[in-house]
Amino acid sequence: MPLTLWLSLAAICAMGAMSPGPSLALVLRHTLGGGRVPGMTAAIFHALGVGFYALLTVLGLGAVMVRFPELFQVITWCGAAYLAWLGIKALRAGRGGAFTPGAVMTTPRQAAKEAVLVALGNPKLIIFFVALLSQFVTPEMSLLAKAIIVATAIIIDGGWYVLVAVGLSHSRVLPWLQRNAHWVNRITGVLLIALALRVVAGPII
């Protein structure tokens, strides 16, 4: 995979990971309720769940592209619509949402269990990855290239949420996030809508 193409993949994965939602709320809740270790545990196990969906998507996309090109196109458009909906939702979120979770006592074991359930219990991740990976997967792509795509999704998702958990260990970070949540939501919303439009425009390979 060319470096420029991988950088595009990494940037899109980062936008997906940073978008406000239940995953961010999960990491915030466990970090505030148990400290750095439960927060990092939630981040890592959530990333593993994301990687599972990314793997399913990568393995299935090539076959769908070859055998059912019209169906693949419809799925891709549905994925683009979902990305646009996420963007609109982020734009309308304002100051609330995932940046104001209720702190409850938690443990690393609870964090790991909930993180996997949140990731695997969210089938919308499949739609997200279809919209995302349709830009990078081709029928003739090698297993190594597919492995790189899956690993990128896991590392970026886990890395971002680990940074969130570590950052929230410092008392000054959360108040800053709460004060500026509307800007984070707005920027994320614009980027997601732009990504949806790029998906509709066609592959970037």
TrEMBL record:
Localisation: Cell membrane
Topology versus the membrane: Multi-pass membrane protein
TM segment ranges: 41-64, 115-136, 143-163, 183-201
Principal cellular location given in the protein's record: membrane
Keyword terms: Cell membrane, Membrane, Transmembrane, Transmembrane helix
InterPro entries, A to Z: LeuE-type
Pfam families on file: LysE
Superkingdom of origin organism: Bacteria
Keyword Cell inner membrane: no
Protein name: Amino acid efflux permease RhtB family protein
Organism classification: Bacteria, Pseudomonadati, Pseudomonadota, Gammaproteobacteria, Oceanospirillales
